[in-house]
Structure formats: structure tokens, C-alpha cells
Amino acid sequence: MNAPVIIIGGGLSGLVGAILLRKQGIPTILLEKKSWPFHRVCGEYISAEVIPLLAELGIDPFALGAVSISRFSLSAPDGRIAHAQLPLGGFGISRYTLDFALMQKAASLGAEIFPDTEVSDVRFDGTRFEVLTRKGQKMTSPLVVGAYGKRSSLDRVLRRPFFFRPSPYVGVKYHMNWDIDDDLVELHTFRGGYCGVSRVEDGRTNVCYMIERSLFKKAGGVVGTEKNILQRNPSLRPVFVSGEKLFDKPVTINEISFRPKSRETGGILMMGDAAGMITPLCGNGMAMAMRSAWMAVPYISAYYEGHTSFFRCTSPMNLPGGTSFAPVCGSEGRFRLFLAILPSPISLSACSVISRAYFSQ
Fold first, then answer.
1. What Å distances lie between residue 46 and 66, 69, 112, CA to CA?
2. Which tens digits make up the pLDDT trace of 107-143?
């Protein structure tokens, strides 16, 4: 089995990449280790900057039930709250719904989609890649794209440096029945982490938090963390005391790393979180993942059509994404510094000033 392009991973960047490639008539295989639809650990707030891109793909998030969001609130660990308007704004929609719609669009355009297909190894002989799956399948291609997310066993196989360094964060997500204004996204801070709360489709509220793994383990896991750490923030406590959890158990992810990653490994082009990520509190991660595919596809297309060499297509010096995301990455650094001093004493006015400065970027 072979194709001009094989994409490993069916998240936002992989699916957007597959749609754009098929719109250009380029045969594409996409491999995803899970089966759609499924939930992912995600804040599920997406910056409005991607609405034109989604329109180009033929996707209307509001037709899928997305909720427009234009206001932001930030609570300190002692429960005090600062408010700000979001100049650009965004929308809330679950990855369960959005990823499924993108997958269906890619399939309708002729992409070969393989769910429940985990890649175990990728080998490159200098001219072609050999992609091996845990089902025993073997596929070949002159170009492979890695879009498999934050952290994967494939990173170990590829000997990516970040994989072998400490990854100190844990992520946990629920959908809940909880009353929150449709146009509001809340960010609640607590010792060692933060929790986002915002509306998604069908009247559900997404509740997603990240915390230092050492504190999570010391608290005894999910139950102890929520009771003894998150609920110490008076503004967050009602969510967990009175909110109705709609999942039998939370969706979790372990060993989240924000260390730098290369945009190319062993000739494999990386997109989305596989190429690099910012802290989820920024609200731009999903937009950046989709934009990374939009920026990478012209390079792939040029190589497919013979207008550029493999080296020029895959060289990290030529791949997009570094300077394009500099403004939001700079904002992330400033906001992360602010969070680092939380729970030291800080005035509510300082919270307000910093939140306005950050979200005006």
C-alpha cells in the first residue's frame, strides 16, 4: 500500500492537512490510532482567527453547534476575579464533534482514512519511507507527515530529545451540566495549575485542568486533586461540588511537555503539537495546529509537483511556523510568568491589568 503522502495522526493538523491536500488532488493516506468520534483532553476554546480557514475547508463550526465566546474571566487562587473582553473572540466546540466533521470532510474528498491504526515505526532509506503499523501493515511513501499530537510512543522510536526529559504536567477533562454564560470562558488558577471552564455545543460545559504531576500524585489522583487542591479556589469550588459530570470517568493525558521540538525528524515533517505547543491557557493552541497544516501544505504540494527538492521541503530552516507564531508565544511567556507568581500575594487590579494586556495581543 502506498501514496504520495502519508499523514500519521488524525487530530486537527492532520485532518486539515489531509483536506487541503485532497483539495489539490494529491492522494493522501491518514492513519489514526483511535476511532472517531472520540474525546480528547482539550480546553475546546478556539480563536476566531480560524473561521476563514474552516470556511475554506467547507466547515461551519456554528452549524455544528459551536458557541460564540467574547468574554474572559480570571480567578486567583483565593477566588478573586478579574474580567476582560476578548477583542478577537472565539468559539467553543468539542473535539468530539469538530474532529469527526473534519474526518468526514477528508474522507468525502477521497483521503484514505485508517482508524484504529497505530504506527509502530517509520523507516527512511533516503528516497522512500516505510511506515509500519501494530496491525502488521506496511505502507510506503516518498513523504511522511507527523501530526500525532503532544507525545507518542513513536517519539521514543524516533529518539526525539524531548521524550526522554521530564514532562511534569497532567491534564484532565470532563463535560458537565453546569450553568455558565454562553459567551464566557473562565480560567481559574490554583496551586500548581489552572482550570478552564466554557460552553460547547448541546448546552454542555467543558471543564479541563492541568496540574503539576507531582502534586497530582501526592493528592492521590483525580479525586484527591479536585477535593484538596482545585476546590480551594472559592470561584472554582461550585463547579466540582454542584456540577454534574457527564462522563463515566474523566479523559486524561499524562506527561505533557512544553519543551522545544523540531519541525522535522528523520525526514518526517511535523505539524501541530508534534512540532511544538504552547500552554493550553493561551487559547490559541488549536488555531496554531490548524494554521501549521495550512502553512505546510504548499511545501508538500511543491515537492509533489516537482517544483522543489525533498531537502528543501523538509529542511527545518525552510519549514514555516517559527516567526509566524512569535507574537502569541511571546504573550504566552509573559502570562506564564504571571501564573508562576500566583499563589504569592497579588492584587485584583494586577490580575485585571495583566489579563487585559495578554488578551489584547
1. 10, 9, 27
2. 999 999 999 999 999 999 988 999 999 999 999 999 9
pTM score above 0.85: yes
Task: List CB contacts of 180: < 8 A, sequence separation 6 or more.
Answer: 186, 197, 198, 199, 205
Question: Are the C-beta atoms of residues 272 and 265 closer than 8 Å to each other?
Answer: no
HEC sequence for 70-121? EEEEEECCCCCEEEEEEEEEEEECCHHHHHHHHHHHHHHCCCEEECCCCEEE
Helix (H, G, I), strand (E, B) or coil at 201: helix
Q: Does residue 329 contact residue 279 with C-beta atoms inside 8 Å?
A: no
Residue 267 CA: distances (Å) to CA of 17, 140, 270: 17, 14, 9
User: Which contacts qualify for 353-356: CB closer than 8 Å, 24 or more apart?
Assistant: 355/72, 355/74, 355/82, 355/83, 355/84, 356/84
- The closest alpha carbon to 283, from 357, 359, 193, belongs to 359
Per-residue pLDDT reduced to its tens digit, 32-60: 999 999 999 999 999 999 999 999 999 99
Q: Which residues does 14 contact at the CB level (< 8 Å), separation at least 6?
A: 7, 8, 30, 32, 145, 147, 148, 271, 272, 293
